[in-house]
Specification:
Elements lengths: L1 H12 L4 H8 L3 H13 L23 H13 L5 H11 L8 H10 L29 E5 L3 E3 L2 E10 L5 E7 L4 H15 L4 E4 L15 H8 L3 E4 L9 H14 L7 H18 L37 E4 L5 E4 L2 E4 L8 E8 L2 E6 L2 E7 L9 E4 L10
Parallel strand pairs: 1-5, 5-6
Antiparallel strand pairs: 1-3, 2-3, 3-4, 7-10, 8-9, 10-11, 11-12, 12-13
């Protein structure tokens, strides 16, 4: 600033031309004339010589103030929706309005302090195999429990069911206990409302699976009798059900941070979230459309009776029915097969001298054999295997 004022004073003396002064001060003539113009335009004040912002005087593409206010208000109503999702929602509900780009939405969020900084974490890149092909709604349902939390004086275990094709949240039901009885009752209501899927994918924990023969539980055995294929992810690999786990994070943010004080209020929060997730919230994997636009009820209905019918086995199979403890009487011997298969009809396929493969429907769960050097004893040996994932 001092050099600029000295340039002005030297010019006012009239002893040198502007070109000569510019050479002496080491600036271009354009800059010298600019300083003179600003000085005299400001009435001879030193303030006119200060640096000025290079920001343009006009912004032809700037977002209108009212539109920016509407975007800010929409973000405040849905604080956990990102710029992509919020823009897609606004486009669908305001088709006549020309909205700015997603990057502009993000800048507006930051400008108004609507973005919380996220702590960066070092993550191991996933190493998962491809999912099976899912070609339509109800081809595969993903099922799991969202971790339990306190609601008043009890615990809430949210049971969630999502269609893998459409990302439609079929159900979100808060249970007081995650036992087989309550889960089966919940699935009876779900099947009555939405029909039966072709397959259900779960983890390996109860009540979906057990360490017994074939990994079956009472719940998964019932699904098999209804004609539903049960898929289990590999142990310790929740990423194989990644789309469902990602939904759980949003569910926790929207309904359980913090949880409600009463169980009925918590279920109403689940119902509101399910409506918003299915009918309002755009999904990037669906081209920013909503899951409800891609889902339709299954044509396969819950049969009567709801517990299903016995399997039909080939004519060369022998059959045996287990008792209430999962014991099977075979060749005048009682053999423990599985407590998950109470009162179920099993198929026994002869595979050799004193050996029979044991089937529950299409699933082989083990074999009955006579131990070496024993004439009268029989034993059941289960097969160690996991149910395969769909690989169409």
């Amino acid at each position: 600033m001092r050099e600029r004022m000295r340039f002005i004073r030297e010019h006012q003396r009239g002893e040198e031309s502007v070109a000569s002064l510019c050479r002496r001060f080491g600036v271009s003539r354009k800059t010298g004339y600019k300083w003179l113009r600003r000085y005299y335009a400001d009435g001879g004040s030193q303030d006119g010589m200060a640096d000025r912002s290079r920001r343009p005087h006009t912004h032809p593409t700037r977002t209108a103030v009212k539109l920016e206010e509407a975007i800010v208000e929409a973000r405040k109503q849905r604080p956990r929706w990102g710029p992509k999702k919020l823009r897609a929602w606004l486009v669908r509900h305001n088709p006549e309005v020309e909205l700015p780009a997603v990057s502009t939405f993000a800048k507006i969020f930051r400008r108004h302090g609507l973005v919380a900084p996220r702590r960066r974490r070092r993550r191991t890149p996933p190493l998962s195999g491809p999912f099976g092909s899912v070609r339509g709604p109800n081809a595969l349902w993903c099922v799991d429990f969202k971790g339990h939390f306190a609601v008043g004086s009890t615990r809430c275990h949210p049971l969630t069911v999502m269609d893998a094709h459409s990302r439609y949240l079929v159900a979100c039901i808060g249970l007081r206990r995650p036992d087989a009885t309550q889960v089966r009752r919940a699935f009876e209501r779900i099947f009555e409302q939405f029909g039966l899927p072709d397959a259900i994918r779960t983890d390996n924990g109860p009540p979906f699976a057990t360490p017994s023969a074939g990994g079956l539980s009472r719940l998964s055995a019932w699904w098999m009798k209804l004609g539903i294929r049960h898929e289990r992810i590999a142990p310790g690999r929740p990423d194989q059900n990644g789309r469902h786990e990602r939904m759980h994070r949003t569910l926790k943010q929207e309904t359980a941070t913090p949880p409600c004080s009463r169980f009925s209020a918590q279920q109403r929060a689940f119902d509101r979230f399910r409506h918003e997730y299915n009918d309002l919230r755009p999904h990037e994997a669906l081209g920013q459309d909503v899951p409800a636009a891609f889902y339709q009820r299954s044509r396969r209905l819950l049969p009567i009776p709801s517990w299903g019918r016995d399997f039909d086995y080939p004519v060369d199979f022998e059959t045996a029915r287990s008792d209430k403890h999962g014991l099977v009487r075979w060749r005048n011997r009682l053999l423990l097969v599985s407590a998950a298969l109470r009162h179920e009809l099993l198929g026994l396929e002869p595979i050799g001298p004193d050996r029979w493969a044991v089937h529950f429907g299409s699933l082989r769960i083990g074999q009955i054999e006579r131990p070496p050097r024993s004439r009268f004893q029989l034993r059941f040996v289960r097969d160690e295997q996991l149910s395969p994932m769909s690989v169409e």
